[in-house]
């Protein structure tokens, strides 16, 4: 038996590690560094109904222990992604999760429907939490009723498991999680980036062209862990945990807090080989802390 | 497969105000490096790697020269690194300057500030071909200037400074030769300089090396984009560049 294998709702993964949406493009560039078949899954960059060119530059900025990004959902549109990017990723022995975004319920529905055409995409990740676009995304991610509505809409159309990626930029993450779980979500992705900003001293202006951006990296790991921990105690559906993961030890922390799988984002920028390295080191880390499998560790850190 | 590599710092020298030259050893990178490419350097304590252009290569010694100006937290941290220490590097990254030039052609090289280093590697490469090279280098003031002597050793070189403390007073655009005297130009420097240069030399075929805050540095994260005259409407500076034909990108 493979000790790293995990079964999520409708997704059987050979290991719990996947690159996070937006940090990995559609895998082409990283495939020059390693065989993407080593990954538990790949979460593709967000797809919108039509091509988006994204925000002005600068789009990224360094912060203490992390970084800000405001890319603005740049992507070639769902049709081109299905025609050109999915077939490339389908050449690797891994699961493909499509992140979908939109500014209206209709757009979410259209993108979800488009992915029904391909059997090479194994699940959807519903992006209701992008902080970097003026219209859409975020309003669905901060109001439980709207989050439930978009979840219901996509569930009604899609023939795939739907994971809803929640925003940490809310007062009560548990309310959001309960709302989308009750609306039929098959799982949750926790967490997206936290809205932040930096000032450029030389120009006396916000450093990012978008003014604000999403904070990611090691700095947000404690917040992500806390949210996974709180949500897991109330909601039954599986959680893909993310936020500052860079080592196999970080993965085990998220498993203990209640995540069933994890996504690695910013750490890919520091080390393009970080995902396969974590996967290689995970069995020894599990063993060192007394676990014989990933499944055994899930939620074990939750105090009764 | 591409790799993440270690480079050993063989030498570090302060060559101008806030400006350091580092000699880094790694034979594979030195073997592959072309003028215009960059190293994406991991700096301990920083989340994001820093892209630094290649200023020179010695293939016999397996070394690469980089120059950087301390302008923020990352470069300040890098300045603490000294001989014998290692740097974790991706590279050489990006596509370099096109090196095929017209026989006996007149080449104009334009470098501004910390944009001068990749132009030096290019100048050395072009100097081995049959062409006439004219370099125009611009700096803020004398204390920030570097490499003027190295350029003078291989080509006709003019230096300008904002305050006239070295060479003529003014900007590089104030002393550019007439369009008809140039076959190809190559430029690297701050964005306002590149904009001014491309306007002034709009009838000449030319190449610009661009700079932008980068994320992954390998083409995946879409952080360092530049609007372009192509189907997709953009180019990735780290992967499609950092060198572009002056006509293909919209500065």
UniProtKB/TrEMBL annotation, chain A:
SUPFAM superfamilies assigned to the protein according to its UniProt record, in alphabetical order: FMN-linked oxidoreductases
Residues annotated to bind FMN: 21, 45-46, 99, 127, 165, 191, 217, 243-244, 265-266
Pathway as given in its UniProt record: Pyrimidine metabolism; UMP biosynthesis via de novo pathway; orotate from (S)-dihydroorotate (NAD(+) route): step 1/1
Domain Dihydroorotate dehydrogenase catalytic, residue spans: 4-286
Active site: 130
Cofactor binding comment, as recorded: Binds 1 FMN per subunit.
Enzyme class of the recorded protein, top EC level: oxidoreductase
GO molecular function, one term: dihydroorotate dehydrogenase (NAD+) activity
Compartments where found: Cytoplasm
Main location, first listed in the record: cytoplasm
EC assignment: 1.3.-.-
Domain of life: Bacteria
Keyword NAD: yes
This protein's UniProt keywords: Cytoplasm, Flavoprotein, FMN, NAD, Oxidoreductase, Pyrimidine biosynthesis
Hydrolase among keywords: no
Needed cofactors: FMN
InterPro entries per record: Aldolase_TIM (IPR013785), DHO_dehydrogenase (IPR050074), DHOD_1B (IPR033888), Dihydroorotate_DH_1 (IPR024920), Dihydroorotate_DH_1_2 (IPR012135), Dihydroorotate_DH_cat (IPR005720), Dihydroorotate_DH_CS (IPR001295), Dihydroorotate_DH_I (IPR049622)
Binding-site positions, substrate: 45, 69-73, 127, 192-193
Catalytic activity: (S)-dihydroorotate + NAD(+) = orotate + NADH + H(+); (S)-dihydroorotate + A = orotate + AH2
Family the UniProt entry places it in: Belongs to the dihydroorotate dehydrogenase family. Type 1 subfamily.
NCBIfam families given in the database record: PRK07259.1 (NF005574), pyrD_sub1_fam (TIGR01037)
Subunit and interaction comment: Heterotetramer of 2 PyrK and 2 PyrD type B subunits.
Function: Catalyzes the conversion of dihydroorotate to orotate with NAD(+) as electron acceptor.
Annotated protein name in UniProt: Dihydroorotate dehydrogenase
């Amino acid at each position: 038996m493979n000790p790293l294998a995990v079964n999520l709702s409708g997704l059987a993964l050979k290991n719990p590690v996947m690159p996070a949406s937006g940090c990995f493009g559609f895998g082409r560039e990283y495939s020059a560094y390693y065989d993407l078949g080593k990954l538990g899954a790949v979460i593709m960059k967000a797809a919108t109904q039509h091509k988006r060119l994204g925000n002005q530059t600068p789009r990224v900025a360094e912060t203490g222990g992390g970084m800000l990004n405001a890319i603005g959902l740049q992507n070639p549109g769902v049709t081109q992604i299905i025609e050109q990017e999915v077939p490339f990723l389908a050449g690797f022995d891994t699961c493909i999760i499509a992140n979908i975004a939109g500014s209206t319920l209709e757009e979410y529905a259209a993108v979800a429907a488009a992915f029904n055409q391909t059997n090479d995409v194994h699940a959807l990740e519903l992006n209701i939490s992008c902080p970097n676009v003026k219209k859409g995304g975020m309003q669905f991610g901060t109001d439980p009723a709207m989050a439930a509505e978009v979840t219901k809409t996509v569930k009604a159309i899609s023939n795939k498991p739907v994971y809803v990626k929640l925003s940490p930029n809310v007062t009560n993450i548990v309310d959001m999680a309960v709302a989308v779980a009750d609306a039929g979500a098959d799982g949750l992705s926790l967490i997206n980036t936290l809205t932040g900003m930096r000032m450029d001293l030389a120009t006396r202006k916000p450093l990012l062209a978008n003014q604000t951006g999403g904070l990611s990296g090691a700095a947000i790991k404690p917040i992500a862990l806390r949210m996974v921990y709180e949500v897991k105690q109330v909601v039954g559906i599986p959680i893909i945990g993310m936020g500052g993961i860079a080592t196999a030890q970080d993965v085990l922390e998220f498993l203990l807090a209640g995540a069933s799988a994890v996504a690695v984002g910013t750490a890919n920028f520091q080390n393009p080989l970080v995902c396969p390295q974590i996967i290689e080191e995970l069995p020894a880390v599990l063993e060192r802390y007394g676990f014989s499998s990933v499944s055994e560790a899930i939620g074990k850190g939750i105090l009764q | 497969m591409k790799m993440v590599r270690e480079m050993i710092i063989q030498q570090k020298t302060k060559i101008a105000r806030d400006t350091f030259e580092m000699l880094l050893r790694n034979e594979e990178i030195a073997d592959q490096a072309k003028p215009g490419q960059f190293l994406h350097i991991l700096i301990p304590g920083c989340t994001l790697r820093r892209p630094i252009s290649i200023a020179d290569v010695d293939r016999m010694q397996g070394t690469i020269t980089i120059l950087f100006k301390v302008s923020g937290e990352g470069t300040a941290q890098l300045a603490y690194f000294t001989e014998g220490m290692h740097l974790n590097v991706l590279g050489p990254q990006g596509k370099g300057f096109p090196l095929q030039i017209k026989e006996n052609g007149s080449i104009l090289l334009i470098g501004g500030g910390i944009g001068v280093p990749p132009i030096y590697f290019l100048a050395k490469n072009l100097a081995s071909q049959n062409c006439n090279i004219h370099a125009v280098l611009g700096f803020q003031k004398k204390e920030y200037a570097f490499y003027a002597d190295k350029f003078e050793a291989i080509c006709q070189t003019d230096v300008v400074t904002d305050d006239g403390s070295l060479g003529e007073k003014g900007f590089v655009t104030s002393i550019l030769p007439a369009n008809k005297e140039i076959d190809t130009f190559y430029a690297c420097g701050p964005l306002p300089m590149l904009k001014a240069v491309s306007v002034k030399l709009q009838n000449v075929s030319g190449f610009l090396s661009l700079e932008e805050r980068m994320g992954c540095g390998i083409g995946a994260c879409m952080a360092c984009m530049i609007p372009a005259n192509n189907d997709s409407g953009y180019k990735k500076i780290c992967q499609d560049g950092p060198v572009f034909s002056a006509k293909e990108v919209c500065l």
